[in-house]
TrEMBL record:
One of its GO terms (biological process) is pentose-phosphate shunt, non-oxidative branch. Belongs to the ribose 5-phosphate isomerase family. Catalyzes the reversible conversion of ribose-5-phosphate to ribulose 5-phosphate. This is Ribose-5-phosphate isomerase A. It comes from Commensalibacter intestini A911. InterPro entries: NagB/RpiA_transferase-like, Ribose5P_isomerase_typA_subgr, Ribose5P_isomerase_type_A.
Length: 233
């Protein structure tokens, strides 16, 4: 499996184009966040400008909104459009069986989960590095928490086995804040044997807004890799 950066970018571009091909005019579409989801938005932008594709998008982050707007894509909100036809997003880990996910290394997990559950269909686009046999293989579980009392929330997370790393801004040592002004605690649980149970435990803790476990909610996965593109359903 190649780890060459340029090759990975080609994988992302290809899977982004295939993901964008699922969108037809008149659709209401959730637009995910992260580098692979950005490739989907770019491919949609190209279709918007060159093919006359017309749809409305609900972005899961400010960054995605800015990217979509740069192509002239029409955006809306869940307030105006509470039910979506399709949501396309990336993931940090995807299990080969069951398509369970870890998401949120980009910091948009709460909005991503809200948009996912507003959509009739959820398609995940990834490169082959993201496929795992068991969640927790190489990625911590991002947990979005309120800044108020985050220390107490962290202690509760530690009690259920989390080894916590506080998400910081890349350019400084300040706390990273989501678009909703919350903090993210990256929680390492090792290999996760019961992700559905862990998701419930995490979301039951006072102070936790949402966690990056997306369980039993993925309809299809598009994977680009050294042996081509696979569309799993």
């Amino acid at each position: 499996m190649s780890t060459d950066t340029s090759q990975i970018e080609l994988y992302k571009q290809k899977v982004g184009e295939v993901g964008a091909s699922l969108v037809t005019s008149g659709m209401k579409v959730g637009l995910g966040s992260g580098s692979t989801a950005a490739c989907v938005v770019q491919a949609l932008g190209k279709r918007w400008q060159e093919e006359g594709l017309r749809f409305v998008g609900v972005p899961t982050s400010i960054e995605t909104a800015h990217l979509a707007q740069s192509f002239g894509i029409e955006l809306t909100t869940l307030g105006a459009c509470p039910e979506l036809d399709l949501d396309i997003d990336g993931a940090d880990e995807v299990t080969r069986q069951g398509f369970n996910l870890i998401k949120g290394l980009g910091g948009a997990l709460l909005r991503e989960k809200i948009v996912r559950y507003a959509a009739k269909k959820f398609v995940v686009v990834v490169d082959e590095r993201k496929m795992v046999d068991q969640l927790g293989d190489h990625t911590p579980v991002p947990v979005e928490v309120t800044p108020f009392g985050w220390e107490a929330t962290a202690k509760h997370l530690e009690k259920i086995g989390a080894k916590i790393s506080i998400r910081l801004k890349k350019e400084s040592k300040d706390f990273f804040l989501t678009d909703g002004s919350n903090m993210i605690l990256d929680c390492n649980f090792g290999l996760i044997t019961d992700p559905a149970k862990l998701e419930k435990e995490l979301n039951s803790i006072v102070g936790v807004m949402e966690c990056g476990l997306f369980i039993h909610c993925t309809d299809e996965v598009l994977i680009a890799g050294h042996d081509g593109l696979h569309h799993l359903k």
